[in-house]
Amino acid sequence: MTTPDQQMYRTGSGILRTALRRNAGAMAWGTVLMGMYQAAETAFPIALGLIVEHTMRERSLASLGLSVAALAVIITTVSLSWRFGMRILQKANTTEAHRWRVRVAACGLQPVARDVDLKSGEVLTIATEDADQTADIIEVVPLLISALVAVLITAVALGMASVWLGLLVIVGTVAILSILSVISRRIGSGTREQQARVARAGAKVADLITGLRPLHGFGGNHAAFLSYRKVSTEARSQAVTVAKVNGAYAGAALALNAVLATAVTLAAGWLAFNGRITIGQLVMAVGLAQFIMEPLKLFSEMPKYVMIARASAERMALVLAAPPVMTPGRERPSAGGDLEVDSVRYGSLRELKFHVPAGEFVAIAAYQPGAAADLASILAVNVPPGAYEGVVRVSGQETRELSIEAVRERLLVNPYDGEIFAGTLRTNIDPAGAGRMIPEAVEASMLTDVVALHHEGLDYGVRDRGANLSGGQRQRLSLARALAADADILVLHDPTTAVDAVTEQLIARNVAELRRGRTTIVLTSSPAFLDAADRVLVLDGGVITAEDTHRNLLTSDETYRLAVAR
Fold first, then answer.
1. What does residue 17 show for φ and ψ, rounded to 5 degrees?
2. Could you give the CA distance from residue 476 to residue 474 in angstroms, rounded to a whole number?
3. 2, exposed or middle or buried, with CB in 10 Å at 0-12, 13-18, 19+?
4. Does residue 512 contact residue 355 with C-beta atoms inside 8 Å?
5. Helix H segments across 23-162?
6. Contact yes or no for 443/510 (Cβ under 8 A)
7. Among 1, 79, 382, 491, which is least packed, fewest CB within 10 Å?
8. Entry's Pfam families (predicted)?
9. pLDDT digits 0-9 by tens, 225-265
10. CB 359 within 8 A of CB 518
């Protein structure tokens, strides 16, 4: 089902129209002030011409004083109109960019993912650079109109001196814009491709940094480097191409504007030489020919910025108009904390069935790691219910009938590679700032040594992705966050793979004690967690093949003993 927002933001043009409509008031005031600025700038050479013309006919101190006062008014208007006009437009631009950044970020952070073929790094680029460039349309339109005002005033002023001079300005401006519009289309398409390639390179390097430690482990550094080098080289090549087109555009605009200014100056000189315009009109024409280069440059650059804004808006539309991967229900689970997986077929799972009553601590020993990962994805609702066969029930209700928020309130799945955020130990354990169970979670996850190691304690600063923590410390910090959430049903996926055996034994006992009376499921091959669990389910070939206590399985099942004994 398509929401009204998705219909509105289906195309880049729709996004730009929304931005323009939302800032119509600021743009109107900005256009008036910037128009006054350009009109005052244009009036300066016109006033000089009139002063020269008047001085040659009548020389008086009063006329000189009046002329100086007129120039002072013009200069004051130029200064104030520019200052306040740009202040209004830049405030609106910044505010609009913020709105789009928040909207794109909200789409990326929704509980239900959008069906869009973009990585998180690409979405980040869209939420920053593309949002900023889209909002530039707020400044582009008023500046374009104000530049047009300057060109029209110049054409009218020169036309009053000589019709040919006015026509020369109008025809020259149309010719310049026609030529540059062809180049601006190439800039738009090239910029769109450049932004996509840069975003892909950013996503690639983010993935590589995340997996840097495993890459070191199996010697995949060189292959990873070559992979990133390839996408980065593509981004660089496209950036060079866009830079060349931008250079050609800027050079062509400057050259054409200079040609037009030169033509106006020479034409005015020829007309004055033949006595068809006065000396004052010649001064005005020469001054306007010099002045007109700036608004013409501004006027000729605006199509380029319009194309860039449109390219960025179209990339934002990829995220904003994308439909959700699934349409969640609206129900909330009833009281209780039992979990049932009924005949689920997905990936390596084949007719998987098991039931965990409320309050039980169950360990699932998966002989194939892919099966554990598939089960964790389904329980975390990262896989839409329509993408697999069978059902998952939380407190007796199917997850397809429940809202994602309700599922996440009752059922928390902590992945083996849980993200660590820039901040402090405290904010990573308790992102919402609720302040509940932090000491208990720190104690149970054996994070106490990390807290005690630094005099800041829980306020010790953590870098992005936990770059200043070891692998075991990051894993224990992620586990502490999951335990502090105190969910009715907690699923832990390989929570101690980077922890030594002694610490793992203590963590398993602590988790079992802290979660007593709460439903807990651990996907693991750790003997410590398997022994601490009330019951062990053996997941082999996508189905549950055995269930008993860990110690009973060790004595009765040779395959189990070989798989989990260390």
1. -65, -40
2. 6
3. exposed
4. no
5. 24-57, 61-109, 120-125, 131-135, 137-161
6. yes
7. 1
8. ABC_membrane, ABC_tran
9. 676 677 777 767 766 776 777 677 777 777 877 787 788 77
10. yes
**Cα–Cα distance between 144 and 457 in angstroms, integer?**
56
| CB 385, CB 391: distance < 8 Å | yes
Count the alpha carbons within 13 Å of 458 in the hemisphere toward its beta carbon. 15
Please, how many CA atoms are within 13 Å of residue 350, restricted to the half-sphere of its CB?
A: 8
Q: What CA–CA distances, in Å, run from 543 to 101, 338, 555?
A: 44, 20, 21
Find the DSSP H helices in 162-220.
163-210, 212-218
Other beta carbons within 10 Å of 342:
14
Nearest to 307 by CA among 467, 144, 476: 144
Q: What is the mean pLDDT of the chain?
A: 81
Put simply, whether the predicted model's pTM sits higher than 0.85 gets the answer no
From the CB of residue 3, how many other CB atoms can be counted at a distance below 10 Å? 11
Q: How far apart are CA 74 and CA 66, in angstroms?
A: 12
Sorted by sequence, the CB contacts under 8 Å of residue 272 that are 6+ apart come out as 278, 279, 281, 282
Which residues have a Cβ under 8 Å from the Cβ of 132 and sit 6 or more positions away? Answer: 97, 101, 312
209-248 as b/e, with b when 16 or more CB fall inside 10 Å?
eeeeeebeeeeeeeebeeeeeebbebbeebbeebeebbee
Secondary structure (H, E, C), 415-457: CCCCCCCCEEHHHHHCCCCCCCCHHHHHHHCCCHHHHHHCCCH
Lookup result for tokens 């992620």: 478
Return d(Cα 40, Cα 46) in angstroms, integer: 10
The token duo for 296 is 């013409």
d(CA 26, CA 33) in angstroms, rounded, equals 11
- Give Cα 429 to chain centroid, integer Å: 25
User: Distance between CA 298 and CA 146 in Å, rounded?
Assistant: 9
User: Which residues 6+ apart lie within 8 Å of 517 measured at CB?
Assistant: 359
> Looking at the chain, how many residues does it have?
566
Pairing of strands 519-523, 489-493: parallel
- pLDDT tens digits, 160-209: 778 887 787 778 777 777 776 666 666 555 565 655 666 566 555 555 55
Q: How far apart are CA 459 and CA 463, in angstroms?
A: 12
pLDDT digits (tens, 9 = 90+) for 434-469: 777 899 999 999 999 889 988 898 999 998 778 888
Please state, in angstroms and rounded to a whole number, the distance separating the CA atoms of residues 523 and 341.
Answer: 14
Tokens representing residue 520 in the block: 């807990």
The one-letter amino acid code at 443 reads E
User: Which pLDDT score is estimated for 217?
Assistant: 53
Q: Chain centroid to CA 137: how far?
A: 18
Residue 363, classed as helix, strand or coil, is strand
SS3 at position 526: coil
Dist. CA 346–CA 191, nearest whole Å:
40
Q: Do the Cβ atoms of 317 and 14 come closer than 8 Å?
A: yes
Beta bridge partners of 489: 411, 519
Whether 1 has a pLDDT exceeding 50, the answer reads no
